[in-house]
Design goal:
heterodimer; A: mainly beta; seven-stranded mixed beta sheet; 52% strand; globular; B: mainly beta; six-stranded mixed beta sheet; four-stranded antiparallel beta sheet
Chain lengths: 113, 114
């Protein structure tokens, strides 16, 4: 597509429920990144994919967070047993390789109530 | 590992005045440097980047930044701002060879008024 697409744009969930956030990167981009933007923590790196593998998961805050990427394209970030502190905007970015400019999606605003 | 410090959380400025948003970084390796802009309820848009070469980098919307290795700074400047420049600005750094894995500063809110 023309840009990085994320869905849903907004998600409200009850504490304890699982949520899935989706990212469609720019076609042909092999690298994909997830970031989290929250009031208390600013913008934080979560995970990096090169193709379907994730060589860097160092930013995932707990084992409730996981992500996968299939077909070298779409990625899903899953948060299990959501907590209120998970409320944030989750941003996805893609780049042609891991060493080039990253293009960001509009983000998914997650609110845990 | 890298870190970024944006000293000013908010910068108020009148339209047509010049502005400088400050950014300092820390890294044990060579770095790439970026400035991103975020308009309300939107994602991040790249303003400009320093990868190598000339230390004065020009970006979109009339912005420029200068890489100063000795002072580990990458301040963003614009000679004359417009109301439409009101947004959040983020400085970011990545390690050489990992240009897409970014470490961000906490952001500077630029508020332009008449």
């Amino acid at each position: 597509g023309a840009g990085v697409s994320q869905s849903p744009s907004n998600k409200v969930t009850e504490k304890g429920k699982d949520v899935e956030l989706r990212c469609d990167p720019i076609s042909g981009h092999t690298a994909l990144y997830w970031y989290r933007q929250s009031l208390g923590q600013g913008l934080e790196f979560l995970i990096y994919f090169q193709g379907n593998s994730a060589p860097d998961k160092s930013g995932l805050p707990s084992d409730r967070f996981s992500a996968e990427r299939t077909g070298g394209s779409v990625s899903t970030l899953t948060i299990q047993r959501t907590q209120q502190e998970d409320s944030a905007v989750y941003l996805c970015a893609s780049s042609i390789t891991g060493n080039t400019e990253a293009f960001f999606g509009q983000g998914t605003r997650l609110t845990v109530v | 590992a890298q870190s970024v410090t944006q000293l000013d959380s908010q910068v108020p400025v009148f339209e047509e005045a010049p502005v400088e948003l400050r950014c300092n970084y820390s890294s044990s390796v060579s770095v790439y440097l970026f400035w991103y802009v975020q308009y309300p309820n939107q994602g991040l848009q790249l303003l400009l980047k320093y990868l190598s070469g000339s230390t004065l980098v020009k970006g979109i919307n009339g912005f420029e930044a200068e890489f100063n290795k000795s002072q580990t700074s990458f301040h963003l400047r614009k000679p004359s701002v417009h109301i439409s420049d009101t947004a959040e600005y983020f400085c970011a750094v990545s390690g050489y060879g990992t240009a897409s894995k970014l470490t961000f500063g906490t952001g500077t809110r630029l508020q332009v008024t008449l």
